[in-house]
Write a structure and sequence with these properties.
- The chain is an alpha/beta fold.
- The chain has a single domain, classed as Ribokinase (UDP-N-acetylmuramoyl-L-alanine:D-glutamate ligase, 3-Layer(aba) Sandwich).
- The protein contains eleven helices and 14 strands.
- The strands form two sheets. A ten-stranded mixed sheet has the order 5-4-1-8-9-10-11-12-13-14, sandwiched between helices. Strands 3-2-6-7 form a four-stranded mixed sheet.
- Helix 2 links the parallel strand 4 and strand 5.
- Helix 3 runs parallel beside helix 4 and helix 10 crosses helix 11.
- The N and C termini lie far apart (39 Å).
Length: 337
């Protein structure tokens, strides 16, 4: 693969976990892969040519050096170029017969949790072209709320587009009510919310129709758009005004596993959003307005990015050219909701 030129002007800052996925093979051996939802998102953005700043430190250990190599290969800028002495986070990943992943985590005293709101806010303020910030998944646990929530509030106050991916991992928390409250607090600062149908159920939105559940969640946040992923059934983008679009590819997808699928979807969504004239013209998030053509472009590119990821083992995000070629060949089908 030809990697993008490093360090494009920074448009997006990401904050959240970077860890090693230990993926259980059929023979019981554990295969280490670079991972973590926000790390995957960060690399996926960089691989599609978006100037991205990753705000969390990485470890000086062997795993951390590998994570840093992946960041640099993707053209992403590290806010902490000097590694820290704390060890790298670990996640043990089990795959079911359909390739769907489940996780257990080892996260005490680890490198990527050595952040604070004031420092992240300062690092973002130093980027004159920064328009968007994104976080989610393990950054939303209650124990880390004091790190990420003030930072999100500061980014929203600064007029940046705030993107939060719920991406819940219930296996990591002993107190589900506190976890749900912490996630909802973060979603309460978001301009764009991303959830899966599984996320909705974990948050307590248990309607049989995930679209109804997504609308109920959206009503409890200030979000202007909500992206709902539905696995093989495609994905949906809902607008605050009640409109929405469903998108799905017309070609079948051969799934190797689903590791990183949602992260690649969100990266594709943000890449396509940043390409739109409406986004480029908006001086603050409050000025951004998307029409039907914008939403279809964004949704199609996001779905294609996810499809290419699930065709690979582990999280292998596509390049911009690969995602664009998939959109052209798979011919996404849209319908208004």
């Amino acid at each position: 693969m030809v990697f993008p030129t490093p360090h494009h002007p920074i448009q997006v800052a990401t904050a959240g976990e970077a860890l090693i996925d230990l993926i259980q093979e059929a023979d019981g051996r554990m295969r280490p892969c670079d991972g973590g939802a926000v790390y995957n998102l960060t690399r996926a953005l960089g691989l599609q040519g978006v100037g991205t700043l990753y705000l969390n430190p990485l470890s000086a250990d062997r795993f951390g050096r590998g994570l840093a190599h992946g960041i640099h290969q993707a053209g992403v800028t590290l806010a902490h170029p000097t590694p820290v002495h704390q060890p790298t986070s670990l996640a043990v990943v089990g795959l079911d017969a359909q390739g769907k992943a489940s996780y257990s985590f080892y996260r005490d005293g680890v490198a990527d949790r050595q952040v604070n709101a004031a420092e992240m806010t300062r690092q973002c303020a130093e980027q004159p072209r920064l328009s968007t910030v994104a976080t989610g998944c393990l950054a939303l646990v209650a124990d880390d709320s004091d790190k990420y929530l003030p930072w999100l509030k500061a980014q929203r106050a600064a007029g940046r587009l705030v993107v939060v991916d719920a991406n819940l991992r219930p296996a990591i928390v002993p107190d589900m009510a506190a976890y749900q409250a912490s996630v909802m607090a973060a979603l309460g600062e978001a301009d764009i919310v991303k959830v899966s149908d599984d996320d909705l159920a974990t948050l307590g939105f248990t309607q049989d129709d995930p679209l109804m559940a997504a609308r109920e969640l959206m009503a409890k946040t200030p979000a202007r758009w909500l992206a709902l992923t539905l696995g093989a059934k495609g994905a949906v983008i809902l607008n605050r005004d009640g409109s929405g679009w469903h998108g799905a590819e017309s070609l079948p997808v051969q799934v190797a596993d689903t590791v990183g699928a949602g992260d690649s979807f969100l990266a594709g969504m943000l890449v396509a959003l940043l390409q739109r004239p409406a986004m480029q013209a908006a001086r603050t998030a409050s000025e951004l307005s998307l029409d039907a053509a914008d939403v279809q472009h964004i949704l199609g590119h996001a779905i294609a990015s996810a499809s290419l990821c699930v065709m690979e083992t582990g999280c292998v995000p596509p390049s911009l050219a690969q995602a664009q070629a998939r959109v052209a060949s798979a011919q996404p089908v849209f319908r208004a909701l």
